Amino acid sequence: MNPLLTNRAQLLAQLDHAPEFDLAIIGGGATGLGVAVDAAVRGLKVVLLEAHDFAKGTSSRSTKLVHGGVRYLAQGQLPLVREALRERKNLLANAPHLVQPMPFVMPAYRRKDQWLYGLGLKLYDLLAGHARLGPTRFLNHAETVRALPGVRVTHLVGGVQYWDGQFDDARLALALARTAAAHGAMLFNHMPVKGFVTEHPAGRIKGLICQDAETGQERTLKARCVVNATGVWVDQIEAMLHTAPGNAADVKLPQAVRPSQGVHLVVDASFWPGSSALLVPHTQDGRVLFAVPWQGKVLLGTTDTPKAQVEWEPQALESEIEQILQEAAKYLVKVPQRSDVTSVWAGLRPLARKAQTSQDQGATQSVSREHTVKVATNGLVSVTGGKWTTYRAMAADVMQAIRQAQLLSLTSDDVTAQTKLWGAPSPDADSGLSSEQGQYARYGSEAEMLATLPGAQHWLAPHLNEAMVRFAARFEYARTVEDVLARRNRLLFLDATAALAVAPQVAEILSSETGVTPQLAAFEALAKSYQMP
Question: Which uninterrupted H or E stretch holds 163?
Answer without folding.
Answer: strand 158-167
